[in-house]
Each structure stands twice: as C-alpha cells, then as structure tokens.
Design goal:
Ptyr_pPase; protein phosphatase; four-stranded parallel sheet; single chain; alpha/beta; EC 3.1.3.48; globular; 5 helices; Rossmann fold; hydrolase
C-alpha cells in the first residue's frame, strides 16, 4: 500500500442518514483495531446536495453510541470519488446497481454494507423522516454488519495488514 490510505466509501441516497451513520461506525471500529492499516472512511450520496448536515435523528442515534455526526456535511457521489475509492459499500441493491451501471470498472470491491452480516437482510431501509426509534433500529442494523465487514476488509481489501 506504500503508506497511502485505503479509501472506503459508504453510499446511500442523500448522505444525511444511513451512510454517515455507517461510515462513523466503520471508522470507529477500524480505529479500535490493535494495528489498523492506513485508511479513510468517507460517505457520499447518489442524490446528495453538497453541504447538508446529517439529519437530527441520525445525530441523536449516533450520540447514544458515542459517535459525533454534528460536523458531517453531505457529499455527492462523483466519478472522482468512485475512482479514488478502494472499496465502496452501498445501503441498497439499487445504489449498487446504479454504480455498477455508471462505473462498471469498480467491480470486485463494490458491495452492500450488510452483505457480510451474519443474519438479516443485506438491504438497509431508509429511516429518513421516521422516529428516533427507526434511526436507532437502522444504526443497530449497521452496527450488526461491522464484524462481517471487518472480516471481509482484512481478508480482501488489506489482507497483509492484519496483525
């Protein structure tokens, strides 16, 4: 890897609910590893407007697990962002299909965020406009995917980095 960070991008629709929560959880998990490889976890949306804050309920749901999203600003998923991403994880198969159609070269490192979870649907429903309980359920669904996602990352994306 020559010291360059592995860029992991998490994708949803507007980049104000699911992908910021997922990116925060994944970043926190990787930072907690004994000897993490150089990495950057980013998020973006297929229909995002640059500069929007994370939704209020996303901020509250993540605050309950000690992760701060107050400074998050949404970003549009761009060809440049896709090109520099080593791995991309989407919330739904629709997001994944859109990227596959527009950027077929992204291939092997394009997956659903929950694809490697031990149980449950690989899809992450959008909690936008829902109650705090819906956001907490979404956050917990994302959190449940982290162990399988870490296994995948260490086996396939940075296999020589596991201590």
């Amino acid at each position: 890897m020559s010291g360059q960070p592995t860029i992991i991008t998490v994708v949803c629709t507007a980049n104000i609910c699911r992908s910021p929560m997922a990116a925060g959880l994944l970043r926190h998990a990787l930072e907690g590893e004994v000897n993490p490889p150089p990495f950057s976890v980013e998020s973006a949306g297929v229909a995002a407007r640059d500069g929007d804050a994370a939704s209020k309920n996303s901020v509250l749901a993540m605050k309950k697990v000690g992760i701060d999203l107050k400074k998050h600003q949404s970003r549009m998923l761009t060809p440049e962002r896709i090109a520099r991403s080593t791995a991309i994880f989407c919330m739904t198969s629709d997001h994944k299909r859109m990227i596959e159609t527009l950027f077929p070269q992204k291939g092997p490192f394009l997956h659903l965020f929950r694809e490697f979870a031990d149980s449950g649907s690989p899809e992450v429903p959008d909690p936008y406009g829902g109650s705090i309980d819906e956001y907490i359920h979404c956050r917990d669904s994302l959190l449940d995917a982290i162990p399988g996602l870490l296994r995948y990352l260490y086996q396939e994306v940075f296999p020589s980095q596991k201590s």
